[in-house]
Amino acid sequence: MRPSRFLLRQLLYDFASGLLGRPALWIGTLAVTAIVLPPLEFRYAPGLSHFLATEPSSAQVVLGTLAGSMMSVIGVVYSTLLVALSLASMQFSTRILAGMTRDRVAQDTLGMFIGTFVYCLLVLRAVHSEPAPSVPGIAYAGALLLALTALGHLVYFIHHIVQSIQANHLVARIANETAVVIDAVFSVPLPGGEMAVDADLPAVPTGAAMVLARSSGYVQLIDIDGLRAIAARGASIHLLKPMGAFVTEGLPLLAIAPPPSAADQDAAVAAIDIGAIRTMQQDVEFGIRQIVDIALKAVSPAVNDPSTAVTCVDHLGRLLVQLAQRSPLPARHGEGVVVPHTTHGDLIDLCFEQLRQYTRTDMAVSLRIMRVLGEVASVTRHEGARRRLALHARLIDEAMRAAFAAEDCEELGRRRALLDAHITPTTTALNIS
Asked: For residue 101, what are the CA distances in angstroms to 78, 104, 314, 321, 324?
């Protein structure tokens, strides 16, 4: 069985994802308010209720009109949101849709309009003329206030959607989310004045039992504390798949020595959350992958938008500078727990390997990549990261000089020289010679 804290984290993330969770919360809250408020106001605030009330027939007309108008606007809101999602997926990448559906403004807008519709219908039940005229004035005034608030929120929603599908705002949002994940995953600052070296991944113990995956999908979340609890009973646990990797049902997922009991095996498998898509819970690579996808789409011949690609490169550099100030991930997470770790060099490759290959004939984007590589080199003290930075710089320089005249490559050469100046002679010699 999964630990309650781990399960709660999964449930909260799933609740915040998509267009169901927060709207359902809005609807439930307003529905309960509409049911509870009329009897309470008649009992505890009859004077205020009478002051805010109107004729029953007028109240029925107003509430019915509000409910009908809310339904009409709900169709507009859904249509606007679906058009925005469609345009964003075609223009940028389908991977960004999960982040857009987590947008709280869109979720709150849907919840507010549907909730107001439900609220008006339920308050309408408390309005009657027989046997005596009865209008819950406070609830009636609340319906008017909700309608005005929803109208104002609709204007803000349209403004927000227009901004959210602009390339600069979209990439900045993804980068901000990725920066939060970097803070959570690479949480230890790098001590000053020393070179950081990535820890080697320990080998799987001889005779370890292979625990097979029970479903296919991507590794979304790893419960390190749950694995530690199993290891505390004398086991050595090696996770064979890193965060974000695809797991195939029936293939090894964990190696545990000595062979575990059935209960420990079930607990170990339950500590690895596997789903159909990658998420931003602990997966730094997924955030970077989205930005790289947008950049690759921008430099494709069908789109040909180098300015968007340059924006993506700038934000990739920002994330790598943030990462350069953090210590490498440990190979061991407590006694007996080994989890494959993402290195700084891996993330540098993810940022620039594909993009460098796709921009061999685009000088503007290559110049920006070279400048960002130099900026990252100026702050990084990770040995493996320095090697990767120098390697990418060399490959970009060689590709550009093969495609452009020497005069066109002068600025590129200057930017590479600045990068080389930030890297030790030994590291440079290993990667450039």
From this structure: 12, 8, 25, 29, 31
Contacts of 42 (CB under 8 A, 6+ apart): 49, 136
- Cα atoms in the Cβ-side hemisphere of radius 13 Å centred on 376: 36
Nearest Cα to 30, choosing from 106, 121, 105, 155?
121
| Domain residue ranges of the chain, discontinuous segments joined by + | 4-165, 209-275, 284-332+342-432
CATH number, domain 209-275: 3.90.1170.30
Model confidence, pTM? 0.86
State pLDDT tens for residues 185-241.
998 888 876 678 887 888 888 888 999 999 999 999 998 888 998 898 888 999 999
Cα–Cα distance, 407 to 55 (Å, whole number) = 83
- Token duo for residue 265: 């095996």
- 120 Cβ neighbours under 8 A, 6+ residues apart: 34, 63, 64, 66, 67, 70, 143
Q: Which residue has the tokens 């407590």?
A: 334
